[in-house]
Amino acid sequence: MSSIGLIRTKRAATTLVAVPAALLLASAPAQAAGETKVVYTTDTGVVGGKALFTGGTHPEKFQVCDVDADGMAVRAMFWWDGENGGPDGYIRLTDDNGATAFCVGGEFVSTWDVHEGAHVQITVCRVSGGREQDCREDWAWA
Question: Which residue stretches of 27-99 are H helix?
């Protein structure tokens, strides 16, 4: 076989392998786009609180945790744009028990079915006397 015939054979074999692989990837089911995000307060030393968002689930999960028994509460606020021009979403949670350095599974949790692909703004702050401080903001995808 000439070298030209060998090159043509290699190209044909490569094409035959590439086409089924491309079809397989194109027909794969869509995966949930959401992400899980943890946002911590900015206080120095022991972190006073955190907000948790679990996206890509139906419904999405929102949680706030006061992880330091310092007499201050922790507040988390979650905002997202409405779907197709619908109303924006908003959830506000406050935990003031400071009972543990870990979040307790079912405490200070809310769920809501946020539309897939929504950009969720997360803000978490320590709160004392109604005044927010040590706030941090971040974003996640639903």
Answer: none
